[in-house]
Here is the input.
Amino acid sequence: MSHSDLRPPCPSCGSEQIVKNGSTHNKKPKFKCKECGRQFVKFPEKKEISSETKAWIDELLLEKVSLRGIARVTKVSRTWLQNYVNRKYKRTPRQLKVSSKKKEN
Here is the structure.
């Protein structure tokens, strides 16, 4: 069995530069991509979150619904939701309004 048969390519970038990275709580081997840093399992049981669900989550966030409440009604994990919110926050440009004071003579 070759090295590539044991370690699947990275689902994010397709790289073959994969290393074993421990195992999950239910003993499935975890892998990590040396190129992009993505961690993954070979045969994930969880499905990807649809764009419709993400749009719904965005609306609920704007309505200031709690993260626990959003996770419950959209059936996503709280960990996934927190990571999603953190990524959105990081990508949001910061806009500061700075006005200069008038100098008095």
Q: What stands out?
A: The CA atoms of residues 89 and 95 lie 13 Å apart.
